[in-house]
From TrEMBL:
This is Glutamyl-Q tRNA(Asp) synthetase. L-glutamate binds at residues 11-15, 47, 188, 206. A motif ('HIGH' region) lies at residues 14-24. It holds the Pfam family tRNA-synt_1c.
Length: 303
């Protein structure tokens, strides 16, 4: 459970690659309820560093959808694209500590090296360290990687407030990972850690699809001298094919042309049920009055 003495600061951090859909509503609702049940602060951060996927006007639509749902963030919303000097300063610190190196490997080369080694492939490929000691002749840098530790120091464990105790060996299960992409865009892992640290985030509540990235972020927090927040990863919403609901799988906005009453019935109540909350409400305001204590009871059940 979050500390009873430290102030709770949470956040919702959507990407503006399209409007909010039911999957993102579930993540937003969980983070909002968690902040409210702990009398904390709930920040809104637009994670718009993947410029090729950004959709014009999607950020404004996200803000409007949250407001229509009755979710008010504290302070001003922030945009990652306005925080680039923070990421550059973090990279310079990592470079100064000798933790970053240029990598010229393509995804196909990493995949092929794993196949040749007979490595099992579960999810993303494990980087084999090909460029750790310098680029091969004729190779050009495709990005910058962060060295992960070896041996016992590579094993990162944490207690997720939804899933319990978890651990991952960064060396054998991930390998050195990208912090600056070959196209010049900042990698998610670096940006999210820098932002959470700078904004004083104490609790991260997000979808289970990001659970696997948490040990990388814990390691980055350590090498950048940042505190570890607590984590809670909620289940993700899938489509009829069993795929995670997302813009890439054709997810539609949950509130297009919907009245307040329709929004309650077709979005808020179903999202609450997905999170395991038994809530009956006649209005959006009434929904939140009932949903906040219901979330507290849900957390108690999982404790």
């Amino acid at each position: 459970m979050p500390s009873s003495t430290a102030p709770y600061i949470g956040r919702f951090a959507p990407s503006p690659s399209g409007p909010l859909h039911m999957g993102s509503l579930v993540a937003a609702m969980a983070s909002y309820l968690d902040a409210k049940v702990h009398q904390g602060t709930w920040l809104l951060r637009i994670e718009d560093l993947d410029y090729d996927r950004n959709v014009d006007g999607a950020d404004a639509a996200i803000l409007a959808s949250l407001q229509r749902c009755g979710m008010a963030w504290d302070g001003e919303a922030t945009w990652q694209s306005r925080r680039l000097p923070l990421y550059q300063a973090a990279l310079q610190r990592l470079q100064g500590d000798g933790l970053v190196y240029a990598c010229g490997c393509s995804r196909k080369e990493i995949h092929d090296s794993q196949l040749q080694a007979g490595a099992a492939r579960n999810g993303a490929a494990v980087y084999p360290g090909t460029c750790r000691h310098g680029l091969a002749p004729g190779k050009e840098a495709r990005g910058l990687r962060l060295r992960v530790p070896e041996g016992a120091a590579a094993v990162y464990g944490f207690v997720d407030r939804w899933h319990g105790a978890l651990r991952q060996d960064l060396a054998s299960e991930v390998g050195d990972f990208i912090v600056l992409r070959g196209d010049g865009y900042w990698a998610y892992q670096l940006a999210v850690v820098v932002d959470d640290g700078e904004q004083g985030i104490t609790q991260v509540v997000r979808g289970m699809d990001l659970l696997d990235s948490t040990p990388r972020q814990l390691y980055l927090q350590d090498v950048l001298g940042l505190p570890h927040p607590g984590y809670l990863h909620v289940p993700v919403v899938n489509n009829a094919l069993g795929e995670k609901l997302s813009k890439q799988t054709g997810a539609l906005a949950f509130d297009t042309g919907t009245s307040a009453a329709g929004l309650l019935a077709s979005a808020l109540l179903p999202a609450a049920r997905f999170l395991g909350l038994d809530v009956q409400a006649g209005s959006i305001d009434d929904f939140w009055r009932r949903a906040i204590p219901a979330w507290g009871r849900r957390l108690s059940e999982r404790a």
